[in-house]
Amino acid sequence: MQVTVTTRTRSSSIAGYAAIALIVIGLALPAFASRSLIQDLFFILTMLTLAQLWNLIAGYGGMVSVGQQAFVGIGAYAMFAGVILWGMDPVPAILLGGVAGFLLAIPMAFFAFRLQGAYFAIGTWVIAEVTRLIIAQWKTLGGGTGTSLPREATSDIMGVEAIAQLFGLRDAAARDVLAYWLALLLAVGTMAAIYALLRSRTGLALAAVRDNDNAAQSVGVDARRVKWMVFLAAATMTGLVGALIYVQTARISPDAAFSVTTWTAYVIFIAVIGGIGRLEGPILGVLVFWGLQTAFSDYGSWYLLALGLIAIAVMLLAPRGLWGLIADRWGIALFPVQRRLILEGTRHG
Amino acid sequence: MIWLDTVVQGVLLGGLYALFAAGLSLVFGIMRLVNLAHGDLIVASAFLILIVVETLGLNPFLAALVAAPALFALGWALQRFVLNRVLGKDILPPLLVTFGLSVALQNGMLELFSADSQRIAAGPLESASIDLGIVTVGTMPLLTFASAVLVIFLLNRLFYSTALGRAFRATSDDAVTASLMGINPKSVFAIATGLAMVIVTIAALYLGMRANFDPSVGPARLIYAFEAVIIGGLGSLWGTLIGGAIIGVAQTVGAQLNPEWQILAGHLAFLVVLILRPRGLFPRAVD
Fold first, then answer.
1. What is the pLDDT of residue B82?
2. What topology is assigned to A3-343 in CATH?
3. With b meaning 16 or more CB within 10 Å and e meaning fewer, what string describes A28-45?
4. pLDDT tens-digit series, residues A88-105
5. CB-side neighbour CA atoms (13 Å) of B9
6. With an 8 Å Cβ cutoff, are B263 and A133 in contact?
7. Of A87, A121, A84, which Cα lies nearest the Cα of A268?
8. Nearest-by-Cβ selection for A312 from B92, B97, B219
9. What is the Cα–Cα distance from A117 to A6, expressed in whole angstroms?
10. Does residue B287 register a pLDDT over 60?
11. For chain B, how long is the longest CA-to-CA vector?
């Protein structure tokens, strides 16, 4: 009897084509979308990417970090340093953000991996605070009050001129389009990489380590190596996203760039509300987050209070998130990683 | 001379951090629950005391006495109806629930009380000082430290000389076996969190009288508190006091070198201790 192992389902095939269509539409969107929609999508895509990365280390890897703001902040500051100190163009300077995230992750992992569970969470948070306080001493980048990208740098970003002519936009709007495209690239790239990782041997090893460290090691998984790899990769990507966000913002301060609330709490809520440990979760979560923010933006910070309460309610009533409810109800998986055995002749999608 | 003064001030400051930490240590020690909203609960309690002071015109100490039973009830209910439902092997759910509570509390306080700095007026006590011969210390810091010692002394008495304390220790060591002995871990947990909120009330009283506070200062207090707990070692209350003192001394010495290094020095002291002794200085319980 012929036997094959597959992760493919009918809904995942449909999702695959839909994803490709969405990416094409996303790329072409600036041709007809308004500037405010582009800005909203930039926000959604960057928060989505951060949530996917946190989901990767916490949801799949079991490393519950409360210090991801360290990588957003250090990435953003590295980009600022490249532009202000070395006169780089902001777009290539984003790459410095990735390098900085990677370099910070090495001492952080060295330290935090000695800690377990709750100690790990607090340890990562303390290291993020230490990083913030050290960066606040960096007087040439504005110290504790922060600084802005110089006008010469923001008015002459490469590619902006071409975009402005292509769509007939002003420079400011063209900058938003460029930032949006980069955000789309990062979001799609991150999700594709995570999906590929989860379907690989390393992905299986990662899930095994999360579920039981000792058992995974007993079947030959090098738990340390897997954790290091995933943590460093997520930190690098988070650094890139941080740098990109601050290219668009063009104004930085240590308190904002290293904000535990913005870059870790909201990011965690997005993952939790959508569903931890699945790729679909953060997508749904970020839409809920953005919807709340848009609908209640006139009522000050009440929506943030609501967000906190919703996260609590989800943890209590549906710990696997909104997508968990959908998956239980209809058995849909857009990005399946579960391996299923198919017996030849009985195949039905 | 200036260094002696700095160290004494640091130890007294550590008393405040030990007060922040004692409630956290109690809850963490008994049920391994990291309450990420602990700092925000301290700030919220300070607002409650402030409201009682302003509406009833009471002395702050009496106001704290009025607030304490209400906050005990709040802690009990929080544990009974919310946190007990997410306790388990997986540390993620309780961590996320308390994180949600933290953000909800911060934003709720921001809407109710605005971002303005507040202070609980304590009259002449605020500026009083005592000359101890070698150093002069503020009455308020001294009172804070004395309160921390008293709270920890009483908690230790409770832990080691009462039936409730025995139940706390038994549940901490092994909740399943404790429940076979007729202890209901869930109600023990609820009482523990209620008690932690009474300690939070005392911490809030001194937080509010000693310095300005606003809805955003909670997370930093949580970090100091947690550092004190970890330095001291899980389950050791006197260790928590020493942990607080270490953070306090590191901060005042750091501030003496450069005012901007105050907070940083405290965190670095914590990291050094954690590298040398990952389980803290005086661990009692095993994780």
1. 92
2. ABC transporter involved in vitamin B12 uptake, BtuC (1.10.3470)
3. ebbeebebeebebbbbbb
4. 999 999 999 999 999 999
5. 18
6. yes
7. A121
8. B97
9. 34
10. no
11. 58
CB-CB contact of A118 with B32 (8 Å): yes
What's the gap in Å between the CA of B221 and the closest CA on chain A? Answer: 12
Q: What is the pLDDT of residue B104?
A: 94
**ipTM for the complex?**
0.88
Contact A115 B263 (CB under 8 A): no
Which of A57, A65, A133 to mutate to test binding with chain B, by most B CBs within 10 Å of its CB? A133
CB contact under 8 A, B34 and A121: yes
Enumerate long-range contacts of B155-158, CB under 8 Å, 24 or more apart.
Answer: B155/B22, B155/B26, B155/B199, B155/B237, B156/B237, B156/B238
Residue A72: pLDDT over 90:
yes
| Domain positions in chain A | 3-343
Q: Percent of chain A having pLDDT more than 70? A: 98
* B93 interfaces chain A, CB cutoff of 8 Å: yes
Judge whether A155 is closer than 8 Å to chain B, CB to CB: no
Which residues of chain B make contact with A320, given a CB cutoff of 8 A? none
Which spans in chain A are helix H? 10-28, 35-54, 69-84, 90-112, 117-135, 151-155, 160-167, 171-199, 201-211, 213-218, 223-249, 254-257, 260, 266-274, 280-295, 302-317, 321-330
- Amino acid identity of residue A266, one-letter, is Y
CA distance A338 to chain B (A): 22
Owner of token pair 């914590």: B270
Tokens of B105: 């509390």
β-strand partners of B129: B138
Interface test with B, best of A69, A122, A260, A268 (most B CBs within 10 A): A122
Which residue from B91, B264, B274 is facing A117, i.e. has the nearest CB? B91
Beta bridge partners of B138: B129
Residue of B40, B82, B107, B227 best to disrupt the A interface, most CBs of A under 10 A:
B107
- Please check whether residue A42 is in contact with residue A179, taking contact to mean a CB–CB distance below 8 angstroms: yes
Q: Does A123 touch chain B (CB under 8 A)?
A: yes
> Does B230 contact chain A (CB < 8 Å)?
yes
Task: Decide if B274 and A111 are in contact by the 8 Å CB cutoff.
Answer: yes
Q: How far is CA A319 from CA A116, A315, B91, B93, B105, in A?
A: 22, 4, 13, 8, 21
The DSSP bridge partners found for residue A341 are A5
Q: Do B278 and A114 touch (CB under 8 A)?
A: yes
**B219 contacts A114? CB cut-off 8 A:** no
Of residues B86 and B284, the one with the higher pLDDT is: B86
Q: Say yes or no: A136 contacts chain B, CB-CB below 8 A.
A: yes
H or E element: which one contains A6? strand A3-6
Each domain of chain B, given as residue ranges in start order, spans: 9-115+135-276
- Token pair belonging to A346: 């009985």
